[in-house]
User: Fold this.
Amino acid sequence: MCMNSRTILAVGLAAVVVMGYYGTSSVAFAQYMGNVGPGGETGQNTIEEALRIQAERVRVAENNPGSGSGTPYLDASGVLGASIIAGAVFGGIAAAFFVRARSGKYAAMGRG
Assistant:
């Protein structure tokens, strides 16, 4: 193992330690819904308010069945459209590599 490899290994190990140290110092409060004040009053976005809003959304969706979920699956910016576009791009790149590999300096003799 040469000196350059040891230096790279040491720097990589130090980077992992530093990222681990600073990564655990921040705490995320996922789905924080509000707080209760000293007098018992509640803040914004309490559980009750969130349940009321969700019930309203369900009611609107039931009253408008043709509106769908709001996720445009076949649109280019939607899930399926973006997947088809990404598949076409990466598939084209892979096909170019496969075609290129069939001929050239390193192709096996007697094949293709």
